[in-house]
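G., the chain you wanted modeled:
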Amino acid sequence: MRGLLRWPLLLLLLQPWETQLQLAGPRCSSGPLDLVFVIDSSRSVRPFEFETMRQFLVGLLRSLDVGPNATRVGVIQYSSQVQSVFPLRAFSRREDMERAIRALVPLAQGTMTGLAIQYAMNVAFSVAEGARPPEAHVPRVAVIVTDGRPQDRVAEVAAQARARGIEIYAVGVQRADVGSLRAMASPPLNEHVFLVESFDVIQEFGRQFQGRLCTLDLCTEGDHGCEHQCVSVPGSYFCRGQAGFVLQQEQRSCRAIDHCSFGNHSCQHDCVSIYGGPQCRCREGYDLLPDGRSCQARDLCNGVDHGCEFQCVSEGFSYRCVCPEGRQLQADGKSCSRCREGHVDLVLLVDGSKSVRPQNFELVKRFVNQIVDFLDVSPEGTRVGLVQFSSRVRTEFPLGRYGTAAEVKQAVLAVEYMERGTMTGLALRHMVEHSFSEAQGARPRALNVPRVGLVFTDGRSQDNISVWAARAKEEGIVMYAVGVGKAVEEELREIASEPAELHVSYSPDFSTMTHLLENLKGSICPEEGIGAGTELRSPCECESLVEFQGRTLGALESLSQKLAQLTARLEDLENQLATQK
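Predicted structure as tokens:
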């Protein structure tokens, strides 16, 4: 029963205080003011204490000259989170504000005072929430009412708020931590820190606060001594540094803020302190990455239209074009010699399973055509065949069908996506048994034309690949494996010829796989001299034997003539030496 009797008695005590505060003097008309109350509603604030804060707000509102062009009022409450009760722009009538305050329900959680100050600084005092813009020079005042020790840091964020021109009053109720109140409040502390132990004391704070709102502009009345700016606030003034400066310890002179000295900039190279915080800067020849901290050697190839056919290499403040091994850079410094040093029978096995998806399958076809651009496609040069596989295998065109690169590329673009499963082992078997047969356009083994198979896949095979991967290599087929996305490295290595480092390529996604061309172009192009510039004929044919014999005899005769000339020159030298003696 004693607990039940406390509430009527408490309300009787509060009512005279609220009335007294309202009647303490005429409403303040000191000019425009943006005022935000930051109310602690953590679980440690007991119901009657929260009611004290509620009545304090109502009573103080009645002493203010509230209006759009006078004092604008906003209220936020906080515990473990921050809640806007109403922003500065919400109400222009005191009655509406009182109604919102009386309907306030405590959050009853932790005590994150630093988080509340951060919210007040960044949100509550923003122009979007109703605060007047800085150029209007309207004072900004925050009144923090709390009952305990903050569970987060308040000193640093309070300093930032004060640096932005927010005057902070820290009011503690009973158990409040004095050190935290002093860390939050604006100077001078004896005018901005209040510890409330009874209703009389909180009433006295209300009177003092009201009095400060209605005093003269001390910045214009005397010698304030501020180096940069003097800010007049109700009942007092304080000095403020210009953008990028903070006050010195004596609160009059200013120094530039060295944000880099805080040690938390994480810049890879250099840190530069600018207005608003630290900014990372890279040394000469490096560019700042999107994370704003890391640096990367400047790649001029990405910043200019280099026109390199194969690869652009940045070198300091310039760049150069390079070609893959076995190809020469042309006189224009950009294009590369074609792969014309030999003959190849090339069969491409392309994964058309459902996991590839239509848009990526188009990228695969474009990738295949980039390989074709590199080859010297002709009946006597390189022949190209294409096989697509999913749950089944389909020859799109065999080795002997097309005789030019343009025909092959057109046929590649016309290939239709199959979808379904991923039977890589079945595709390898089809390649070994059919694709490299003479019936499909492969040249006879006796001609020693290299046979190359290139498997392109994006995932794990749904059948066994071991038997036919080994069989392909036993048949003398040089195997390359290109994996994208979820391709399995073990399977790629099993498919590819040795060494795997030269025959396996991988890209994490389809959009970036073009970088694989560098390895493939340099590998697929046959070594210089293999079948280069000669007609492909069987060495066992009679005409070939006669031709070989003729070339051999001609070479021997040439060597005999050169030997005779060398012998004659030696005899002349011997005669000259004998004469000199």
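Confidence is low (pLDDT under 50) at residues 1-26, 527-539.

Shout if anything looks off.
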